[in-house]
Design a protein that fits this description.
Number of domains: 1
Largest sheet: none
Distance between the termini: 11 Å
Order of helices and strands: HHHH
Radius of gyration: 20 Å
Helix content: over 70%
Strand content: under 5%
Length: 128
């Protein structure tokens, strides 16, 4: 017969897998968004030919760098959760990903809750 802590651990393992998949899907959707933005930006540049404002290019590059950092951190968080790693980089990534409103905020809050619950489960002694 399974103990309560074993069932709780299995439930937390499933939730970690679902959160990991959620982060990977979120990262993939952000990449699709970035691709569409890049296509529209290139379209804009091709229509304007020589009259390109340097501030537009600089702002797009900054946007692209921030977006790629968010994609990389979301993908890293998803892979770390699928591997069920619970250490301080996960806490840091979860807090950074709270900035991605609304999906990143939801995933970040759920991750912080999951990490807190899994820590509580690890600290409880196994009862016989």
């Amino acid at each position: 017969m399974e103990t309560a802590s074993k069932r709780s651990s299995n439930g937390l393992s499933l939730s970690a897998k679902l959160l990991g998949i959620g982060y990977l899907v979120y990262a993939a959707l952000m990449l699709v968004f970035a691709a569409f933005r890049l296509i529209s930006f290139v379209n804009l540049l091709s229509q304007q030919h020589a009259s390109v404002n340097p501030l537009v290019v600089i702002s797009f590059v900054i946007f692209a760098i921030i977006l790629l950092l968010l994609v990389a951190s979301s993908a890293a968080m998803g892979l770390r959760l699928l591997a069920e790693k619970r250490n301080w980089p996960n806490w840091t990534l979860a807090c950074v990903l709270l900035l991605g409103f609304p999906v990143g905020t939801i995933l970040g809050v759920l991750t912080l809750i999951w990490m807190r619950l899994s820590r509580r489960t690890e600290q409880q002694p196994a009862s016989s």
